């Protein structure tokens, strides 16, 4: 796919318009339209548009969580039309993305916005990783009442994953303080797999961690406090991303403009093709190149930045 045929599209402007229109509807009209898809922007064939709407309806009927709806739609389009599709589902987000020609749709269904697009441009799928994120839940890993481990994200062989779970179970059985649990796990993995491992445990994180640059930074007040939730990216690039986001938030108040600024800066600094989503309430299922993914908070705003293509 020739890069010249890709498009940069902003989605938030129409999102604001549709909120106003819905606010002016009568309750009867709102109820009548609740199952009707409203296509806001698309360069897809009608057949593909219909499939996108059908899969979104299917996902919303089956699942109550936005990330699971996004996952359902993304996987279906990967299967039907080949990789690599990305899907964002939510009520409040802005975006600036690059997509292949005739592979983009942005629509509303049941008052929820759905952004679906393809971005591959010949990237070897073996060099890509998938990330499955729920931006409404700040706890990335959790135990249920039966001590069953739920793996939310991993880039590790299954035997190492199992060992991590077993060591965590052992640590939780022995310790009640989060930093002690983290220290136990970190030391065990250092001993088994070589230094230097880092471990974060809990809802209000206590950690035993060594790094050359802190990934939790405080500057210019709460609005610019960066908290890295998940990253597959060099630390200096993470720092560059946080600084870029801080700069964008000083200049702009609208999420789509913040996303556009960060995406363009990273395209310039680290070459195309970057994608950026900014918002308070959305779920996603995306595929990214190795070492080119970050998900973090600036105050109460979530920022997803990744490279694909």
From TrEMBL:
Keyword tags: Cytoplasm, Cytoskeleton, Dynein, Microtubule, Motor protein, mRNA transport, Nucleus, Protein transport, Transport
One GO location term (cellular component): nucleus
Domain of life from the UniProt record: Eukaryota
A GO biological-process term: mRNA transport
UniProt-listed InterPro entries: DLC_sf, Dynein_light_1/2_CS, Dynein_light_chain_typ-1/2
Pfam families per UniProt: Dynein_light
Gene3D superfamilies the UniProt entry points to: Protein Inhibitor Of Neuronal Nitric Oxide Synthase
Subcellular localization(s) per the UniProt record: Cytoplasm, Cytoskeleton; Nucleus
CDD domains assigned: DLC-like_DYNLL1_DYNLL2
Alphabetized GO MF terms: dynein intermediate chain binding
Bilayer-spanning residue ranges: none
PANTHER family with a match to the protein in the record: DYNEIN LIGHT CHAIN
Family: Belongs to the dynein light chain family.
Name of the protein this chain belongs to: Dynein light chain 1, cytoplasmic
Organism the protein comes from: Hymenolepis diminuta
């Amino acid at each position: 796919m020739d890069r010249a045929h890709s498009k940069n599209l902003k989605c938030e402007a129409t999102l604001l318009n549709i909120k106003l229109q819905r606010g002016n509807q009568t309750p009867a009209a709102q109820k009548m339209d609740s199952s009707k898809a409203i296509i806001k922007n698309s360069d897809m064939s009608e057949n593909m548009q219909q499939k996108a709407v059908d899969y979104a309806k299917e996902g919303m009927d089956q699942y109550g969580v936005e990330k699971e709806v996004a996952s359902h739609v993304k996987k279906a389009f990967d299967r039907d039309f080949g990789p690599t599709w990305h899907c964002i589902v939510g009520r409040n987000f802005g975006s600036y993305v690059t997509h292949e020609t005739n592979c983009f749709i942005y629509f509303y269904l049941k008052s929820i916005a759905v952004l679906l697009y393809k971005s591959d441009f010949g990237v070897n799928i073996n060099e890509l990783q998938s990330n499955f994120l729920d931006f409404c839940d700040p706890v990335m890993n959790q135990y249920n009442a039966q001590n069953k481990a739920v793996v939310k994200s991993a880039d590790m062989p299954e035997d190492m994953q199992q060992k991590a779970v077993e060591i965590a179970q052992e640590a939780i059985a022995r310790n009640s303080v989060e930093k002690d649990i983290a220290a136990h796990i970190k030391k065990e993995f250092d001993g088994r797999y070589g230094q230097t491992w880092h471990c974060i445990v809990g809802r209000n994180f206590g950690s035993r961690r060594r790094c050359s640059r802190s990934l939790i930074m405080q500057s210019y007040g709460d609005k610019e406090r960066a908290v890295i939730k998940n990253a597959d990216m060099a630390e200096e690039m993470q720092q560059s991303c946080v600084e870029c986001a801080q700069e964008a938030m000083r200049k702009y108040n609208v999420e789509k403009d913040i996303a556009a600024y960060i995406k363009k800066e990273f395209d310039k600094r680290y070459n195309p093709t970057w994608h950026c989503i900014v918002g308070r309430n959305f779920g996603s299922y995306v595929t990214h190149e190795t070492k080119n993914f970050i998900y973090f908070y600036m105050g109460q705003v979530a920022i997803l930045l990744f490279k694909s293509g």
